[in-house]
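Good morning C.,

I know you're traveling, so I'll keep this short. The sequence:
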Amino acid sequence: MASDSKQLSLKKRHCMIVHAYYPIGEIRVEREARALIENGYEVDVICLQQTGEAAISMEDGVQVYRLPVARHKEKGIVVQFFEYMAFFFLAMFKVTSLHLKRRYNVVQAHNLPDFLIFSAIVPKLSGARLILDLHDLMPEFYSSRFKSGMNSLPSRLLCWQEKLACLFADHVFTVTELWRQTLIERGIPARKISVVMNVANDRIFQRSNVTPVAKNGHFNLIYHGQLSQRYGIDLAIRAVDLLRKEIPEICLTIHGRGEYLTDLRMLSETLGLGTSIQFSTQYVPTTDLPQLIGNAHAGIVPYRRDIFTDGILPTKMMEYAALGIPVIAARTTAITAYFDSEMVQFFTPEDVQDLANSILLLFKDRGQLAQYAKNIEKFNQRYNWKAVAAQYVEVVNRLNQN
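The tokens, ready to paste straight into the viewer:
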């Protein structure tokens, strides 16, 4: 019995809590879980449950526990708050019961919301270390979504709960150095914050995974990801409208879902763009994404610039980079911190004419298009998932030893 107990204590057990669907909902969570499994960890994930999904299942070596809470993104902030609270209490009960049986070494809570970290209070009190993984900064997210300033009462309250959550955690992850510095300025000790970038999984996003197909004389552009107003997809549609006479063969594929999809369809129909805009809304496994996006002439990242989007380094942009696809991107602070004008064709955020001019430039100058495809490899050499995953696992290992 003593030997069995010793063997049990030697196992490295890690639990992740995420208010999202798994594995479809959060690529970041999936990749971190796989990185830990490859380094000898047992990983459990506590997440949301979609209609028809099993409450408990094994997904590629990850034990998944799904809680009966559904997303209600389009039903307003009050409904979303109660959704957060329902998941919080169910997750607290689940992680507590699992911890009493399995004794997790580390529990990692992924925001939104930040206060989800407090659901792991019992594991913390019994010796587990806690990680808060900040995918987004909630004060900036709220300020952008509801057009309120950072000095508004809700934004100040979100800053307060963010600080409490970060101080309660033993370590904090965020996605860019820019946001790390923001957290430090808000009073979080620099020593407890690490950057885990959302770089592309280079096992999946590599050029060899793309089978060339005939482009049929089209000039193909691609946007893939969440369809929200802040991401400026409507600006890209309007840019295509300005260019359809000069580039009759232009075709913008918009792949994704979100609350802005209906508006985007209506805009395309109102402008009479026909086949110049293609909507792709079906679910595509991550492993199939390279083929979907890899035959575009260029990827578009048309983000509007506000207090939230200015700090985002888009995952889609890093996936384009991994596949060697030239990128036309809004000139925001986070993007220009990692990419320069030799790697990317920049345009002024929210300037439709400047975006159209950038597209036209690359359509006419295929040599420059090819040069961007070559130069963006500099980003891949410096930032790649193999290196980022190693840094992530190193931090988790260090917490296990303390």
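Safe travels,
E.
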